[in-house]
Amino acid sequence: MTSAPSNRSSDTGSKVGLGVSIEGQEGLDWRRWRLLWELTDSLRFDSLWRSDHLMSVLGAPQRECLEAWTSLALAAEWTHNVEFGPLVTPIMFRAPALLARMACSVDVLSRGRLILGLGAGWNQQEHEVFGLRFRSSSARLTELEQGIIEIRRVHRDFNPKPARNPLPILIGGSGKRLSLGVAARCADEYNADGMTPSEFTAFSQRLSTMCKEAGRPADAVRRSVTLSVLVAGTQRELSAKAGQLAGVMPDFAGMSPDDVVQKLRNQAPGPWVVGTPAEVSAQLAEYVPLGVSRLILEIWLLDDVEDTLNLLGHQVAPTLVGRGPIRR
């Protein structure tokens, strides 16, 4: 039995949407969440995404952590234009049939703007703390594929049905063969995490081959990339933001702001894009001719979202091939 993905084409090369992502377990509260939605919707970003974790994954369990699907339901009501979804929901967090009903309800409430992002889960400690089973990587991916089949069954056999049926399913990962196989058979979109342009090119070729092996067109699965972003109007402001970043991410603890900036520049493009809006635009432009349909920029400084989103929305998004929600 196979899952029946939708017949949407990737339309690579026609549009490149610019989305935004945040880590909901690293200090997100309701005030910040509402501000994120107001700005991304009004600035016409392609999409807004949030992680689905139950506790901080950066070793700070005291941080605020909004439950993902409760927050997504509110977002469906607060917004009118932007597509949205979890990036990504681990398949073991909720029974697939229950998740199918939750996703359908949120999609209907949003009038067809939900994308169901799914993954196999990776944080063993998180699973254990909350009493969730954590199996081997191959076993989790098998459960992911079986879970997608169950979600499709519920959406086929029960009412209400998603506004977009089949509901678009995104699978997130690092481009390893097992996750690509699941995506080639079942998904509408694959989100590659932190890939450089050369890594993305190789990954995309593998995915095309596996889609054809699964009996689907080579471009049946859209390709998107998530990159962490640090952007500022001036170099001085960029250094100040880098100093704040050192207080959020353990990798930068104890480093001077200038050292953080230099370390990030050495990792751009992929897994970071960093600099002024012009510099960030130039780094993102390297992905545009490679067949990427959506670039998702992850913001780590939750108290800086207003400045970051305005810079991205007004000065970076217009430089890409397309902007605004891309509907299928």
Structure description:
With 328 residues, the chain is α/β, with parallel strands linked by helices. The protein has one domain (17-319): Luciferase-like domain (TIM Barrel, Alpha-Beta Barrel), CATH 3.20.20. The chain is built from 11 helices and 10 strands. Strand 1 (17-22), helix 1 (30-42) and strand 2 (47-50) form a beta-alpha-beta unit. The model is unreliable at 7-14 and 323-328 (pLDDT under 50).
CATH superfamily: Luciferase-like domain
Could you give the order of the helices and strands?
Answer: EHEHEEHEHHEHEHEHHEHEH
Number of domains: 1
Main sheet makeup? 10 strands, parallel
Give the C-alpha Rg: 19 Å
Poorly predicted runs of 5 or more residues: 7-14, 323-328
Tally of strands: 10
Mean pLDDT across all residues, rounded? 92
At the third CATH level, what is the topology name? TIM Barrel
Give me the number of helical elements: 11
Question: Based on the structure given, which CATH architecture is correct?
Answer: Alpha-Beta Barrel
Secondary structural class: alpha/beta
- Strand residues, percent: 15-25%
